[in-house]
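Lab meeting, action items carried over

1. Structure of the two-component assembly. Owner: GW. Status: complete.
Input record:
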Amino acid sequence: MIEPRILEVRTRILKKNDELARAMRDRFAAAGVLVVNMVSSPGTGKTALLRETLARLKARGVPVAAVVGDLETDNDARRLAESGAPVRQIMTHGLCHLEADMVERHLEGWDVDALHFLFIENVGNLVCPTSWDLGESVRAALLSVTEGEDKPLKYPGLFNTSDVAVITKVDLAGPCDFDRAAAHANILAVRPGMRIIEASVRSGAGVEDWIDYLLDRRRALTAPA
Amino acid sequence: MIEPRILEVRTRILKKNDELARAMRDRFAAAGVLVVNMVSSPGTGKTALLRETLARLKARGVPVAAVVGDLETDNDARRLAESGAPVRQIMTHGLCHLEADMVERHLEGWDVDALHFLFIENVGNLVCPTSWDLGESVRAALLSVTEGEDKPLKYPGLFNTSDVAVITKVDLAGPCDFDRAAAHANILAVRPGMRIIEASVRSGAGVEDWIDYLLDRRRALTAPA
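Predicted assembly:
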């Protein structure tokens, strides 16, 4: 059980994180940088979707960059760098989530204000990243068709705090007997009205819907008030 | 970042958990109960494999029971109860892992000593459950073919502390372009000599290998020294 003392320390640390994240979000928004925090289970396909996203935005001349969190290995940063975009790995060495100061430190030396998009690929985990604001304007919860339709009900915290749900690997929907209606219903039960995008990097289906969503969100961020 | 004070409190709580877990393991072993802690990502198929395991062991007259952890919902307990075995749900309400005292409390009223197997299905998470000993004799790390072959390298803590790796959903290996040799090499890189079992509940492949492994482990537990 969580003891009162650890709760108290945790509350203080979360508060500090929230303050830093809020300052980062204000700074990014003023510079017109849309920050996107991508959260999912291990193996949902965050890296594959992000690599494709970076490549497609870059091909249109949109300035993009990414930081990617993992406990160990820089496999994901290497995979993402294939897109040609600037990418940095954050190794957490056992920590189950990213925190705002880790992101901030890994941006040092980059001309962040010149970016239109900064993507943060979180550690693969449906629980812990939920509590940690990274200064993002968009939190995307990814869910693959291989994982089962009830994940939003089991992990409501993530879906509740996210702006968009992306159902990935839809090319595998058939072999996995994926129940699309149940998945949508479960997402909407947790967060009514949530925007849901279905995509497959392998088949290409829906990836442009995701790109359009991101471009729309950035337009909203930079539109005169 | 983890502050020194939270580390200190965490160390104390982990130590208390370890002491309880050790006492539980001794008690279970003396009673001939093999306790199996199943850990994986959300969506790897822990519940499906466990339901099949409970049903097959029960059909042979082996006394079995299970407790299952989730943040919210008792979906998994209801799915597992279809096996006819006694099952209890542990709802963690946001906590990302099970702890020994949660397991102990949920066994109250059961004649645990009469069991041959007690299964614990952990919260879906590759990171946090690693640090929490639940008094198990066997820790099983599950990995599905849909998740990618590099998970053991990214989450070495789990594979390092586990006794057996179970690769699940092998009926989907083809559609997922699963690289079997790479997965085995990555598991063995993290834990040389680790026992690897490949299984699919849907096709039935390998499930008996898993059952045989469990029966062997229990025989070893109850064999006269």
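2. GW to write a short summary for the group page. Key points so far: The CA atoms of residues 212 and 218 of chain A lie 10 Å apart. Chain A touches chain B at residues 1-3, 5-6, 9-10, 13, 41-43, 70-73, 75, 94-96, 99, 101-102, 123-128, 144, 146-148, 150-151, 153-157, 169, 172, 175-176 (CB under 8 Å).
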